[in-house]
Sequence to fold (119 residues):
Amino acid sequence: MAALIDAIDVKRKMFVELENVPFYCLEAEISTPTARGGQTLVRLKLRNMLTRAVFDRTFKASDKFKEPDLQTVRGDTASGSVTKPARLETGIEVRVPFFIKEGEKIKVDTETRQFSGRA
Fold:
């Protein structure tokens, strides 16, 4: 079951689900009335993740949103901490960073048999 998030707890850069559509919060503004008994309102600027449309909408602080089931796809990194296996022409298999493409020449440390850079 998806977790429920109160409207007042929604912050910038959060994802929420509204009417079975995932949204990304661009801005969140909380307005508390000065009069007694007034409701706290939350104004959210949301981006529809399917159509990329942006709109403002006001919610009561107690309104609830579902947490959407999203997977955030990670790009190729140069840090080297994310690796993949690569088989060399010699038959040796070494772990290389994701940014190395098939057919590229690489340097391999002969003592440790580990990737040491591009050739």
Q: What stands out?
A: Residues 24 and 104 are 38 Å apart (CA to CA). The chain has two domains: 4-66, 83-118. The first strand starts at residue 4 and ends at 6.
